[in-house]
From TrEMBL:
A GO cellular-component term linked to this record: cytoplasm
Superkingdom per UniProt: Bacteria
Gene Ontology MF: a single term: phosphatase activity
Alphabetized PANTHER family for the sequence: BROAD-SPECIFICITY PHOSPHATASE YOR283W-RELATED (PTHR48100), HISTIDINE PHOSPHATASE FAMILY PROTEIN-RELATED (PTHR48100:SF1)
Entry-linked InterPro entries: His_Pase_superF_clade-1, His_PPase_superfam, PGM_Phosphatase
Protein name, UniProt field: Histidine phosphatase family protein
Pfam families registered for this protein in UniProt: His_Phos_1
Renumbered residue ranges of the record's region Disordered: 1-23
Transmembrane segments: none
Length: 200
């Protein structure tokens, strides 16, 4: 699950780790209601979150709705961790680097980022095989893992995840990870416009 909309610069938020905007909290609540409706084999059994505030706060809303604890997984942090948070429309030039697969402006590489995210998925599989894990994270994390599952190694973005949307993957033994669906959106009273995954 991608986090809800974060606060914008100039709102008093930590420029390197903003929390959720009021709209982001509403998005998280809608996503939590959707997660609560998953029952039977689809019911959430384990809840993880990236250590970044926008993901932790989203996961907290989900956890409150489900009556669960949130486990923090460092490997789910976005590639921009530690850098000044920048929405796509506020820095389109630097996001062109992201779309080209160049993460060096954020102090990492596509390969390093992918390896970190995949290692987290491997840890989930080892610790919770056969259980339904919900990981609240970021657009870049979701994209790099989806690309890994599909065997795409040269690009960062496969699709633009919407805020508080869910993408599902399943481990199928010898077949490995499979994509079940991408970008399931929790319904709100008013729709949000899709935003590139670079705007994390």
């Amino acid at each position: 699950m991608r986090h809800g909309e974060p606060l914008r610069p100039g709102t008093g938020a930590d420029p390197r780790d903003p929390g959720l905007s009021p709209r982001g909290r509403a998005q998280a609540a809608a996503a939590a209601a959707r997660a609560a409706a998953w029952t039977g084999a689809d019911a959430v059994e384990v809840l993880y979150a990236s250590p970044l505030s926008r993901a932790r706060e989203t996961a907290g809303v989900v956890a409150d709705r489900l009556g669960m604890d949130v486990r923090i997984e460092e490997g789910l942090a976005e590639f921009d961790r530690g850098a000044r948070y920048l929405h796509y429309e506020d820095g389109a030039d630097i996001w062109k680097r992201y779309l080209a697969g160049d993460l060096t402006p954020w102090g990492t590489t596509l390969g390093e980022f992918r390896d970190r995210v995949v290692a987290s998925a491997d840890r989930f599989l080892e610790a919770h095989r056969g259980r339904h894990v919900l990981a609240v994270c970021h657009g870049g994390v979701i994209n790099v893992f989806a690309n890994h599952v599909l065997g795409i190694t040269h690009r960062t973005q496969l699709f633009p995840p919407e805020y508080a949307s869910t993408s599902r993957f399943r481990w199928e033994g010898e077949r490995g990870w499979q994509v079940l669906n991408l970008n399931e959106k929790a319904v709100m009273a008013t729709d949000q416009a899709a935003e590139p995954a670079g705007a994390q």
